[in-house]
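Table S2 (continued). Query chain:
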Amino acid sequence: MRKNEPVCGPDFVSEAEIFLKLRTAGRSAEVIGREYGVSGSYVRHSIRLSKLPGNIRAALAKGEITRTHALAWLELKDPSLMASEFEKVKSSGDHLSKKDIKRKVLNYQVMNSNLALEEDRLRQVLGTSVEMTGDRESGKITIKYKSRMVFDRIMSLMEGSRNDSPKQLSEVFGRDFTI
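Corresponding output:
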């Protein structure tokens, strides 16, 4: 791709990779945009395309979906969920509009909104940042800490849950909680 040459169709994936390399090298989205004749916002959205799972990136590269559709799938946030939901739609033969994809994402988020409540409960119990991905059947919990003191407190809570007298963590996780 040459500078100031308009990008279209299947080149969106290549463009995203180029923009990502330039951004990683320390250039701002605005500077990159000026060099390629697009807005900084366009550059930032293009870079987001690199977060798509392989099957959606491949569909974009083949021109099977538009850049707008690809960006809409990113709202699911979890790459494995994006990939599986995209495959369901693709195998059904449906051609979803951007609005349909956003509606599907919103429905999924509403179905799983209770995870946000559990995430908040864990955040309160641990006193630190917690991120949950997945759904009620399986997923991942990431506990972030910024100091040795916070780490020690989290470990103390977990160790306390091993004792005969259950502590807050075992109450949050129930009988399936193991360390």
